[in-house]
């Protein structure tokens, strides 16, 4: 149990394109989902916390208008990178957390975004 | 603020060797502690967790004990295999205590390479 599906796994697109990444919890309801960014050989950097039915909470330094997050249901959150540029190229990973304290986060397999 | 520090890698071992990856943390309150593993090109998988002092998390031959007195959560395995080669992340969650965001704070990750 506790499977999180992230799609697509890899995206290559031109500069200026907007890219949408989906994160789905397949067998549980996730009140909260998280979006991370990982640079090569580095740790995960939390970008934002996505709560179902409300606005996402962004970490300091993350541009809200650049990285749009929508969490319309208990099983789906989306991250849209708007007008992507080469510096947005990275590995984006989502996670989903069951409701309740001390519940671990379950991670998707990540999306490799490459902007040409 | 809360933080996690891991030993620097890469750690290179021969098959069947004993593994220790050190992890220490700084936190207010009583965080839950986690070890995640990331295989190449994939997202993170929860390896084990501990939610209170003196708890021992274990899975797939790996174990770690929540040591409040030394603020540590070292990962150990008695006999590593080539298939254990991956990046290991120590993390803490501030879901305990008065702060209940569920955010994870990750260490920088430790690469383990196991040679046959």
Description:
The complex is a heterodimer of chains A (116) and B (116). Chain A is built from no helices and eleven strands. With 116 residues, chain A is an all-beta fold. In chain A, strands 2, 4, 5, 6, 9, 10 and 11 form a seven-stranded mixed beta sheet that branches. In chain A, a hairpin with a 6-residue loop joins β9 and β10 (105-107). The radius of gyration of chain A is 13 Å and the shape is globular. Chain A starts with a strand and ends with a strand. Chain B is mainly beta and 116 residues long. In chain B, the strands form three sheets. In chain B, strands 2, 5, 6, 10, 11 and 12 form a six-stranded mixed beta sheet that branches. In chain B, strands 3-9-8-7 form a four-stranded antiparallel beta sheet, with no helix packed on it. In chain B, β5 and β6 (44-50) form a beta hairpin. Chain A binds chain B through residues 4, 6, 32, 34, 41-44, 46, 49, 93, 95, 97, 101-110, 112, and chain B through 32, 34, 36, 41-46, 49, 51, 89, 93, 95-96, 100-104, 106-109, 111.
Keywords, separated by commas or semicolons:
heterodimer, A: 116 residues, mainly beta, 7-stranded mixed beta sheet, 4-stranded antiparallel beta sheet, 55% strand, B: 116 residues, 12 strands, 49% strand, globular
Summarize the structure.
With 116 residues, chain A is mostly beta strands. Chain A has strands at 4-7, 10-13, 19-25, 30-38, 44-51, 57-58, 67-73, 76-81, 90-98, 105-107, 111-115.
Give the radius of gyration of chain A: 13 Å
> Poorly predicted ranges of chain B (pLDDT <50, ≥5 residues)?
none
Count every beta strand of chain A, where a strand is a DSSP E run of 2 or more residues. Answer: 11
What is the structural class of chain B? Answer: mainly beta
Taking the alpha carbons of the first and last residues of chain B, their distance comes to: 41 Å
Radius of gyration of chain B: 14 Å
Number of separate helices of chain A:
0
Quaternary assembly: heterodimer
Main sheet summary of chain B = 6 strands, mixed
Number of strands of chain B: 12
State the secondary-structure class of chain A.
mainly beta
């Amino acid at each position: 149990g506790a499977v999180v599906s992230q799609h697509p796994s890899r995206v290559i697109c031109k500069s200026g394109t907007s890219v949408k990444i989906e994160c789905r919890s397949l067998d549980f309801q996730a009140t909260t989902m998280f979006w991370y960014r990982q640079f090569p050989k580095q740790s995960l950097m939390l970008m934002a916390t996505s709560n179902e039915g409300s606005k996402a909470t962004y970490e300091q330094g993350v541009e809200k208008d650049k990285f749009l997050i929508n969490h319309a249901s208990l099983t789906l959150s989306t991250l849209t990178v708007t007008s992507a540029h080469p510096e947005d190229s990275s590995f984006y990973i989502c996670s989903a957390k069951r409701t309740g304290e001390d519940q671990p986060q379950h991670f998707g397999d990540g999306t490799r975004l490459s902007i040409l | 603020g809360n933080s996690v520090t891991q030993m620097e890698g890469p750690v290179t071992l021969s098959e069947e060797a004993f593994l220790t990856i050190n992890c220490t943390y700084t936190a207010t309150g009583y965080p839950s502690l986690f070890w995640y593993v990331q295989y190449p090109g994939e997202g993170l998988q929860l390896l084990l967790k501990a939610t209170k002092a003196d708890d021992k998390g274990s899975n797939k031959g790996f174990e770690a004990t929540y040591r409040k007195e030394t603020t540590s959560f070292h990962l150990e395995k008695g006999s590593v295999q080539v298939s254990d080669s991956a990046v290991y992340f120590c993390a803490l969650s501030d879901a305990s205590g008065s702060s209940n965001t569920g955010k994870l704070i990750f260490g920088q990750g430790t690469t383990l390479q196991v040679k046959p």
